[in-house]
Specification:
It contains 5 helices and 5 strands. The chain is an alpha/beta fold. α4 links the parallel β4 and β5.
């Protein structure tokens, strides 16, 4: 299993890409490292693309998700303006993504769940242009 996190578009966005078997421990460790990083860097983020389409098994408990949501709420104190897309392809993962988006409302982030990366990227491009006046995102 791998969760990779990389900055995109000159550091104004990031991609969180997961594949294989996601365990609660790995989910928490990767998100903790990412969400508690340098606050000045975190303030620059305008979007986050979270792609879980290559996940084959999601062994994450409700408590693990709630812990990560707490990390998101803490991180949102440095940046409440993020546009966040979660990409999932299966019904079960879609339900988890929707639950996450509802529980994370306190962050102030705009969070949407999509079934395809193409849809998610299109929404991010539209919202980042509307909200921040930034055009031409490349996601790379």
């Amino acid at each position: 299993m791998a969760i990779s996190i990389k900055d995109l578009d000159g550091g104004i966005g990031n991609a969180i890409i997961a594949s294989g078997i996601v365990t609660g421990q790995n989910y928490i460790e990767k998100n903790k490292k990412h969400l508690t990083q340098d606050k000045e860097k975190f303030k620059k983020y305008r979007f986050s693309l979270n792609d879980y389409t290559e996940v084959t098994q999601f062994d994450v408990s409700n408590e693990d998700i709630e812990f990560v949501i707490g990390l998101c709420i803490d991180a949102s104190k440095a940046n409440r303006n993020a546009i966040v897309a979660i990409v999932v392809d299966k019904d079960f993962k879609y339900g988890i993504g929707r639950m996450f988006s509802i529980l994370a409302e306190e962050t102030g982030w705009e969070i949407m769940v999509y079934r395809s990366r193409v849809e998610a990227e299109a929404w991010i491009k539209k919202r980042v242009k509307e909200k921040f006046g930034i055009d031409g995102l490349k996601f790379g």
